[in-house]
């Protein structure tokens, strides 16, 4: 992908390194089809930083934030979430995005959840939802959606601390013959809503409807609204608290399910040619952002709510961070859309963003993020 000149304007084996059935089917487009394209960009408020990214709206879908999501092949799935800012009652609706079209695939068995997480299991046959908020309490439940048959079931899953639950946590698959997912808190008492920093491992086989919880022997800081990226034998935890923007744990066998490769060579070339330079000061730590691994040793971080109080609305900043012994952050500038509680995935060679909270409320735009060419 070519680019053009931009206008400037655990304690056990892990070590930590801190660096400050009845299916309703309908198409949703709200008057926007695949031939309707809106492109815009905004220069960084820091005039010394150029804008290297742009956003292109490709569809209008369901307005939703803090939902569960995943990508299987060239299809993007979203489930649950909230539809109105401040809403405590989660949705049970489920949609798939394919060829710039949103289609509802909600069934009667679909659970009502928000602030939950999804992983893909069974070679793409199953979407497994983990934890979440059901409108009155945090849950440690596991629900499974069979992509082939279009059906849901709730799996029995013993082993989680009594009275505890999960929401606004983060998950990443582990490299294991026994299907396993690492879950990094936020967990706590259903009654007192305490925050903890525990880590858990969810093991199971969705085909056999057999799951179990285990505590994972690493110590982690209490976080909420963070994201996880794997690199080699390291796990990176990004955001989720007012300090420690990024933390690295070594000796953890984790793997990324969705990776962007299309921008990798361009970004590496921009770094090599000094078109973009490492930030002298780390960006403000943030929560409810989205991150995406890029190539073998980069990650892209977009949006979220910052902890420094300088932004009164969701961030529209985009950064790229190098993963490794000497991690560095690069500011790619800003786009028109500030988002919080959204999702960013890679489908083919396209980075897709949908939903989240924006300046005026819960948003329904689906747009691409790309380098300005």
Automatic annotation (TrEMBL):
A GO molecular-function annotation: cyclin binding
Highest taxon listed in the record's lineage: Eukaryota
* Ranges of biased composition (kind: Polar residues): 11-33
Task: Name the Gene3D superfamilies on file.
Answer: Kelch-type beta propeller
Q: What is this protein called?
A: Uncharacterized protein
Disordered, as annotated region: 1-33
Which InterPro entries does the annotation name? Answer: Gal_Oxase/kelch_b-propeller (IPR011043), Kelch-typ_b-propeller (IPR015915), KLDC9 (IPR042941)
């Amino acid at each position: 992908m070519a680019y053009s000149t931009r206008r400037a304007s655990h304690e056990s084996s892990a070590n930590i390194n801190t660096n400050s059935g009845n299916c309703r089917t309908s198409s949703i487009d709200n008057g926007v089809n695949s031939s309707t394209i809106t492109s815009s960009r905004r220069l960084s408020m820091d005039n010394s930083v150029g804008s290297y990214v742009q956003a292109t709206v490709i569809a209008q879908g369901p307005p939703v934030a803090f939902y569960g999501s995943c990508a299987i092949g060239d299809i993007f799935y979203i489930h649950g979430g909230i539809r109105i800012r401040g809403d405590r009652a989660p949705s049970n609706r489920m949609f798939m995005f394919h060829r710039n079209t949103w289609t509802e695939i909600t069934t009667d068995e679909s659970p009502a959840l928000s602030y939950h997480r999804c992983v893909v299991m069974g070679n793409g046959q199953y979407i497994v939802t983990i934890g979440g908020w059901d409108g009155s309490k945090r849950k440690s439940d596991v629900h499974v959606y069979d992509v082939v048959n279009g059906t849901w079931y709730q799996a029995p899953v013993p082993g989680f601390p009594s009275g505890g639950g999960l929401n606004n946590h983060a998950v990443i698959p582990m490299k294991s013959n026994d299907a396993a997912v690492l879950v990094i808190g936020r967990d706590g008492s259903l009654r007192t809503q305490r925050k903890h920093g525990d880590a858990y491992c969810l093991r199971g086989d969705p085909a056999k409807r057999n799951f179990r919880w285990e505590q994972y022997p690493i110590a982690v800081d209490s976080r909420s609204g963070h994201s996880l990226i794997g690199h080699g034998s390291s796990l990176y935890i990004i955001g989720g608290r007012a300090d420690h923007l990024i933390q690295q744990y070594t000796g953890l066998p984790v793997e990324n399910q969705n990776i962007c490769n299309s921008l990798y060579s361009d970004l590496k070339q921009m770094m090599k040619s000094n078109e973009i330079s490492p930030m002298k000061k780390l960006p403000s730590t943030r929560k409810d952002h989205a991150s995406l691994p890029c190539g073998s040793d980069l990650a892209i971080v977009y949006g979220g709510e910052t902890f420094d109080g300088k932004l009164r609305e969701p961030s529209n900043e985009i950064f790229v961070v190098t993963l490794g012994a000497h991690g560095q952050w690069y500011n790619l500038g800003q786009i028109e859309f500030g988002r919080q509680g959204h999702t960013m995935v890679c489908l083919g060679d396209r980075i897709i963003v949908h939903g989240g909270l924006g300046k005026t409320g819960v948003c329904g735009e689906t747009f691409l993020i790309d380098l300005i060419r």
